[in-house]
Amino acid sequence: MRKMIFTLLGVGALLGTSYAAQANSVLILEGYQAQAQMDDPAFREFSAERGQEFFLQNHTGGKPQTPSCTTCHTSDPSGVGQTRAGKTIAPLAISKTPDRYSDFEKVEKWFRRNCTSVLGRTCSAREKGDFITFMKTR
Amino acid sequence: MLKVKALLLGGVFMMSQFSVAMADERYRPIDNPVVEKECGSCHMAFQPQMMPKRSWEKIMDGLDDHFGEDASLSADVSQEIRDYLVANAADAGWWSGKFMRGIKEGDAPLRITEMPYWVREHRKEVPARAWDDPRVKTKANCQACHRGAKLGYYDDD
Predict the structure, then answer these.
(1) Do A86 and B71 touch (CB under 8 A)?
(2) d(CA A84, CA B103)
(3) Which among B43, B70, B72 is the nearest to A85, CB-wise?
(4) Minimum distance, in Å, between the CA of residue B75 and any CA atom of chain A
(5) Distance, in angstroms, between A87 CA and closest chain B CA?
(6) S-S: A70 plus which of A75, B4, B75, B150, CB 3.0-4.6 Å?
(7) pTM to 2 decimal places
(8) Residue B80, H or E segment
C-alpha cells in the first residue's frame, strides 16, 4: 500500500503546489480507504462525524497525561495547540493549515506517535481516514 | 593626521571585537533543516553546543522513549541528526565550549538544564516560582524568556 501511495504522490508532486496539497490529501485518503476496505469488507466510506467523535473522545490505554487528541491540539480544530514543552502546534483544520494532510510520511509519523500516546495502540486506516475527513470539513 | 585617525579607528574596532567576544551567550543557530525540523517539532531545537557529545549520543540512542514520548525516526534521518549534534557538541572543537564548565568527566546529562553551567547561570537570577508560570511552563521553554533563543542569542542581560 505504501508503494501505491508513493507512486500516486509522485504524480501529485508534478502538479502545482497548493493544487498538489489538495491532490495529495485526496490520494492519502484513497490509500487509507483501500486499506480500510481490506481490513473490513463491509466498510463503505469515511465519516466526518465519526472523525469528530474520535477527535473529541477521552481514550483509555494511552498515557494518562494525554487521554485525548484535544489534550495538546485543543478541542477546536481551528485552534492553536501546545506541546508539553510549550511549543505551539498549527491548527488541525485544513482551512487554517492547507498543507497539513499532503505529506504522507509526515501524516504517518504523527499518527504513529500520537496514537501510541493517546490510545496506546496504532490507529486503524478507518480511524485515520475519518479523522482527516473531519479536519477537511473545518 | 590620517595615520592617527586610522590607528584610532583600528583601536576602536579592536575593542568592539573584544566586547563582542566577551558578550558571552551566543551560540551558532542550527543550520541543518532536517535537525531544525525534527528536533523542533515539539520543543525548540536546542543548540548542540550546550551538551557534550556523549550526552547527544545517549539522546539519539533513546528516541523511542524521549522523556516519555516516542520521537523515533527513520535510520538515515536519525544518523544525519546524530552526526550533526556530535559535530557541534560542547566538546567537539579544539577547546571545549563554556557549557562544559564544571561538568564531571564522563558525566552525560540528558538535559541541558542539568548541565552545571546552565544550573549556575539560572540559579542566581531566576526565582523558583518563575518555572511554574503558565507562560513559561517548563525549563525546556528557553524562548519564554530568551526571545532570541532560536537564533542562538541568550545575551539578555
Answers:
(1) no
(2) 28
(3) B43
(4) 14
(5) 5
(6) A75
(7) 0.79
(8) helix B75-87
- Ramachandran angles phi, psi of A7, nearest 5°: -65, -40
Q: What is the pLDDT along chain A (138 residues), one digit of tens a residue?
A: 777 777 666 665 555 566 677 778 999 999 999 999 999 999 999 999 999 999 999 999 999 999 999 999 999 999 999 998 889 999 999 999 999 999 999 999 999 999 999 999 999 999 999 999 999 999
**The residue to which cell 473545518 is assigned:** A138
Contacting residues of B for A65, CB less than 8 Å apart: 68
A115-to-A1, A63, A121, B127, B140 alpha-carbon distances in Å: 20, 10, 6, 37, 24
List pLDDT tens digits, range B103-138. 999 999 999 999 999 999 999 888 888 888 888 888
Using a CB-CB distance cutoff of 8 angstroms, which residues of chain A are in contact with residue B140? 85-86
Q: Which three cell numbers stand for residue B136?
A: 513559561
CATH code of residue A118 = 1.10.760.10
